[in-house]
Amino acid sequence: MLDPLPPPPPWLVNWVKHYSEALYLPSLPYHIHEVLGAFVLYQTTQSIISPLLSNLLFPHIYPKLNRRTRINWDVHVVSLLQSLLINTAALWVMFNDKERKDMNSSAVERIYGYTGASGLIQAMATGYFLWDLIVSARYLKIFGPGILAHAVTALAVFSLGFRPFCNYYGPVFILYELSTPFLNIHWFCDKLNMTGGKLQWYNGMLLLSVFFGCRLVWGTYQSLRVYQDVWHTMHLNTQPGPVLREIRESPHSSIYIPRDGQLCLGDASCISAQSEVMKFTGSQTLAVPFWLALVYLTCNLVLNTLNWYWFGKMIETVRKRFEGKPHDERPRERQRKQSMVELAASELDYDTLSGPKTPYNEKEDEFAKAPAPSNDNEFAKGTEFATSTAVPDGNHEVKKR
């Protein structure tokens, strides 16, 4: 499938071509406008769109956030936007790109093949991870080294796609982002004082399920496929020379069937789409160099390791949202979290039993009703409602924690 977006202006292609040749990224000039467009979109969203909309939609919450939380808020807005856009585009390409589907029969095409539609996904992802790298490095104290490592490795993996290299797997690994919308919703529930509610509970279950399915199961399986394809192409030729020599000599190669356009029936766009599959390969194409395989597979391994680590942290975070704190008298017993109605009734009973308020009691009540400070680490250690008001039991005897 051809790139559905218009091509970049000639002056931009000529300006980038010199640098892309030096870096051996020959398909980059044809998608540079999409890389820059994605970067500008996400930076504009963080700096302008998110603050304006957040102030408009949440006037009693967003303006009162401290600087650290406000930065985190804007970054989560960008992350939510990006995940919705890139997931939709990747699924559309995977279902509609016929040339990409035909690559299933050839490891060489999956490694060296190219389609304009898959190049679009590479470009959108590269633009986002370029923005992500800058933000993660600038606010390292907020997001931590794990997020920075994720940005570096993801940017390296998708940038190498412009060789083109593993262009076929671009939409595949983008589906890691299917879990990201649920992650952002979980974070916003904390900031909107919805911690422990039904929305966060159902969303948390979806988050864990989708994260496990798309990142751990799907991602690990596709990583093994990449390892197999790279190994195959690295050892395709035992003698020095072009990697495609043996493939081109085979009359049954999928490069020529149906890549010769015989099945297009005169459709110009079909012929163009088929002709660009091996557009960036030729007699000079060599086997995958060792350094390229090492960099790509190492980055892939780092991303998968981070996914397994984060899955454990996410389980721990979701559990904390719905578990009470231990009793002082019985450390092993978990206390059920009270609803707001129960808390209000408890305070009313306490006021009735304790008689008129003194200045000391008023200060104590103000302190008891104050919310606990929020923690803005990754996966949103949000505000947890804490109270020290007395809770009467069924016999109306007062107990204080």
Report on the architecture of this protein:
It holds the Pfam family TRAM_LAG1_CLN8. One of its GO terms (biological process) is lipid homeostasis. Keywords: Membrane, Transmembrane, Transmembrane helix. This protein is mostly helical and 401 residues long. The protein folds into two domains: 10-321, no CATH class; 340-399, no CATH class. The protein contains 15 helices and two strands. A hairpin with a 5-residue loop joins strand 1 and strand 2 (398-399). Helix 7 (140-159) crosses helix 13 (290-321) and helix 9 (180-191) runs antiparallel to helix 10 (198-234).
DSSP strand tally: 2
SS-based structural class?
A: mainly alpha
- Integer count of domains: 2
Helix-residue proportion? 55-70%
Mean pLDDT rating: 77
- Strand percentage: under 5%
Query: Taking Cα atoms only, what radius of gyration do you get, to the nearest Å?
Result: 27 Å
Q: Supply the number of helical segments.
A: 15
Q: Give the N-terminus to C-terminus distance in angstroms.
A: 66 Å
Q: Please trace the helix and strand order, writing H or E for each element.
A: HHHHHHHHHHHHHHHEE
InterPro entries: TLC-dom, TLCD
Subcellular location: Membrane
Pfam families: TRAM_LAG1_CLN8
Keywords: Membrane, Transmembrane, Transmembrane helix
